[in-house]
Write a structure and sequence with these properties.
The chain has about 525 residues and is an alpha/beta fold. It is built from 14 helices and twelve strands. Bound molecules: pyridoxal-5'-phosphate. It is an enzyme of class 1 (oxidoreductase).
Amino acid sequence: MNAPNAAGWRPSMGEAGEMKNQTSSGDYGLMLEEALSFELGAADKCGVDLDPADRAPSEALGRFLRQSAPGLPGLTEPETVRHYTRLSRQNYAIDLGPFPLGSCTMKHNPRLNEKMARLPGFADVHPLQPQATVQGALEVIEQLADWLITLTGMASVAMSPKAGAHGELCGLLCIRAALDARGEARDVVLVPESAHGTNPATAAFAGFKVESIPATAAGRVDLEALKAKLGPKVAGVMITNPNTCGLFEPDMRAIADAVHAAGGYVYCDGANFNAIVGKVRPGDLGVDAMHINLHKTFSTPHGGGGPGAGPVVLSEALAPFAPLPFVTRGADGSIHLVEEENAGEGHDQAFGRMVAFHGQMGMFTRALTYILSHGADGLRQVAEDAVLNANYVLRACEDLLPAPFAASGPCMHEALFSDAGLAEGFSTLDIAKGLIDEGFHPMTVYFPLVVKGAMLVEPTETESKAGLDRFIASLRSLAERAKAGDESLHSAPHFAPRRRLDETLAARKPVLVWQGEPGVAGTPSLSEIGGS
Ligand SMILES: *Cc1c(COP(=O)(O)O)cnc(C)c1O
């Protein structure tokens, strides 16, 4: 909590106007300021009454016997509930308003998903339970796998990876295993300049050298530059389609043919599958491995909200190397898990495992619920509406914010703008922070790196036209203010609980350990990371 100023007032959360500095509490209306639990708590407070211990701590603890108080904040139950509820009100969520973050597909999560995931037969099963007692849960995995194979036109799917990046690692380990089986030591992975940061990171993590492929002026992979890099050292490429400029890669088939002819494999980053689900089957484009972010394309919560799931679909060439376990159906109709490479069940070349058990059961249930409630036609409409919404935003704002690739035709599921043309000294950050004041979560900023001052807006199909119009009106008004040089934008957000933080310092030197006195405000203070 901020210290009282000379007049006894606490500098308030925002600078919304005169009134704001006149509250003695630091709260503003029903927007409540909140101190750290350590500042609120006191060591001698406790949420429950405990009887004094009737004997000395056990000698058996030896040197592990605690020598001092644990340094936890002592809070009563109502203080604890209020603390976390107050903090939760300062958070922004997809259930409050749109989350236009490009490359994230932050769509509404239907409540039906939650209802299904909470059925005790799914929520309360244990991964080590006898398989005969979890046939329904295994059937969910099998049915979802079947849908993913059908929607992508691929040969097989590894269900266990737990996020997009984890799926990338799984796909590259399949490629490595396939190369080992061929006895070839290829160690270069080609990644386009516009790729998501996880692509080069994953390739490096999997032990490959990363070489970058330039983009054309139209924001696509430069096919000739890519061909020039192919050779006996190249293990494969990692291509995102639609790419992170929100554009379809029309040369995908030619890219795949060239890579295959040179002995490499095609990894496709499928995080943007939302734009093409039901319209294009990546298997038809020559893809060998692609992760699907269940937590993007098929709803399920994500973004600080829940775990992800990144199943990887695989071509005939890579399928034999997929990690265990696998769900299969026996001749008697019962389902079981293949857990061993040498079980003689067709997975003898599996490269190992990605996780201890079977993957994210809760995400599987939510994703299958979403798929079944949409049906094949509904899923196709997801892609069509997502693309329509993004083009609506693109065309509604391109007169004020330059859209670098808009001249080459419609975009896919996300609209990309740049900050060229704003008044001297104004940039993407000012627009993003201004959006917070307008009640919107900012769009993705400064990504993809191929566009200077990029603003990537992904509305998704779940925003209505009325909702998009409100967002567009705010974005346009901010662009106009930034073009006119409205200085007040430089200090936005004015109405949020905090002003601008030094995000680099916060990321590089996070203050993770409380070092002050319980019940005393102020150390370490937010001002250390530039907050007010
Ligand atoms: C989200 C995303 C990823 C990473 O997915 P995670 O589930 O966050 O690991 C990779 N590539 C692209 C293009 C993405 O949008």
